[in-house]
Specification:
Helices cover 19% and strands 40% of the residues. By secondary structure, it is an alpha+beta fold. The N terminus is likely disordered.
Length: 504
């Protein structure tokens, strides 16, 4: 890249006064290298990139690209002085002068504007030091990450370290602290932070036998890819001042001692605390059904909250609790915004031989004053001790016939009604300690999603979206965490009691 230098009489600001001086101007001949880095601008509207021009150990951005992203206008007068304007506020710049002037106030810059291929560029610091003073949203320039955060987005600085080989330790530190959930999926640990995005620094260490890679899959989730020798993990979290730390120990053997009870539920001062002990055993499974999805939005709150979104968010939190604290396999009948029939939801639980089925919903009422969670379990039109199996002879592989007792699809739940009632009682007791509960806490109803379930099954109405106050609460992370914690506590106690009674 070639440069030409010449002298021009240009206006300069000295001692707060505008005067004239002969100054040198630099013209850079040539363009930016195609592989040059960029500056990311993250806002509610998404992510934009600005080209970076590196010159004399300084990073510059082009004013025309700044104008496109931040809706500024740039004017150059006949003497070369630059005026950057935003909504009636102006910033005065002079070539080769490492200063910006805003309403007579001088702002120091690491370098003055430069010209490259007929385009003006300013040092990256211009965004944080000058533009931020006239812009109507907060601009957080993070030079080391080449990132600008616009507005009130939660983008914690996140550093990931991997230490050891077998066992291995993965440490994730966030500043400021951001709560997180961890779940095991398809041979990877996914750490999802409650943030809009992450300002992420990944480790440069080579893969180990237990941790093959660390990567990011969406703006707020870190994925730890596990090696074939992985058997278990333990997770712990702590907060020190403004910094949060998540520590995950990745093991090739099961821990010598298994937790006999879950960690105590998070207190009201820290409702998003992570579990302290975790394993990866999957001897039993639980099916969680996030109600509705796809074209079926379910109930809709006065503030626009959709039932389908709420149920999926809580289901993912429940899955995180069970998988990290107990190592139980948790099946979601849907893990994305898609339509799933009622039969397919129950079939997922039945075919996977789940120990429990919990269907999540949000309620609606003509009365906007109605509020509170409730639990429902199946009621049948014909009461009885149980449905009678149907004897059938079916062919088997290799020839011959086999006698089988077949239970009608819609009658499967009848054998589990008493256990479902006990599960509903356990859930009601736990929900009372965590969230508002309806005066009719437990009800029976003929529910198509529960009747074919061949295991204890309940449906939870987490609250009323038609109540404005409850809708606001239900969309909060605190409420969703409390519901998930109540489900975890109730299902854990119910399952342990069932194992003792059944001698399993």
């Amino acid at each position: 890249m070639n440069t030409l230098r010449f002298f021009l009489p240009l206006p300069v600001v000295l001692g707060g006064m505008l005067t004239w001086a002969w100054v040198s101007a630099v013209v850079i001949v040539g363009g930016q290298n195609a592989s040059a880095p960029t500056l990311s601008v993250l806002s509610r509207e998404g992510r934009r990139s600005l080209s970076i021009l590196s010159m004399n150990d300084q990073d510059f951005v082009f004013l025309d690209e700044l104008s496109a992203v931040f809706q500024t206008t740039t004017r150059e007068d006949t003497l070369g002085a630059l005026t950057v304007a935003y909504k009636g506020k102006t910033i005065l710049l002079t070539p080769d002068q490492p200063l910006a002037s805003i309403a007579g106030r001088l702002i120091p810059l690491p370098a003055g504007p430069i010209r490259s291929a007929r385009r003006w560029a300013v040092p990256v610091d211009f965004i944080g030091r000058a533009l931020s003073l006239v812009y109507d949203l907060r601009l957080d320039l993070r030079k080391s990450s080449r990132l600008v955060v616009v507005g009130d987005l939660r983008v914690p600085r996140t550093t990931v370290r991997v230490e050891g080989n077998d066992p291995a330790r993965v440490t994730l530190e966030t500043t400021p602290h951001a709560s997180s959930s961890i779940f095991l999926e398809n041979g990877s640990l996914i750490v999802k932070f409650d943030a809009d995005a992450l300002d992420l620094t990944l480790p440069s260490a080579s893969p180990s036998v237990l941790v093959r890679a660390v990567r990011i899959v969406d703006p707020a989730s870190v994925v730890v890819d596990l090696g074939p020798r992985f058997m278990a993990f333990r997770a712990a979290s702590e907060t020190t001042g403004n910094m949060g730390r998540v520590t995950i120990d990745v093991l090739s053997t099961q821990p010598e001692t298994q937790p006999s009870a879950p960690a105590p539920p998070p207190g009201r001062d820290n409702p998003e605390a992570l579990p302290l002990t975790s394993t990866a055993s999957s001897a039993h499974s639980i099916a969680i059904d996030p109600g509705h999805g796809g074209d079926d939005e379910g109930a809709k709150g006065v503030g626009g909250t959709k039932e389908k979104d709420l149920t999926l968010a809580v289901a993912r939190r429940v899955r995180g609790l069970f998988e990290t604290r107990l190592g139980l396999r948790v099946l979601l009948t849907r893990d994305e915004d898609r339509s799933v029939s009622l039969d397919d939801r129950t079939a997922t639980a039945n075919n996977s031989k789940a120990d429990l089925l919990i269907s999540l919903h949000a309620n609606a009422s003509l009365s906007t004053a109605t509020t509170g969670a409730s639990i429902l379990y199946a009621a049948f039109d014909r009461e009885g001790a149980g449905a009678s199996p149907i004897a059938a002879r079916l062919p088997v592989l290799g020839g011959g016939m086999r006698e089988l007792d077949l239970l009608p699809w819609e009658e499967a739940q009848r054998r589990h009604v008493d256990q479902s009632a006990a599960l509903a009682q356990a859930l009601a007791a736990e929900l009372r300690d965590h969230v508002p509960i309806n005066v009719h806490a437990i009800e029976r109803a003929p529910l198509s999603v529960l009747e074919p379930a061949n295991m204890p099954a309940v449906l939870i109405e987490m609250g009323y979206l038609t109540n404005a106050g409850q809708e606001a609460a239900m969309t909060s992370m605190e409420f969703q965490t409390r519901v998930a914690q109540a489900i975890f506590d109730a299902a854990f106690k119910f399952r342990n009691a069932s194992l003792v009674e059944g001698g399993r």
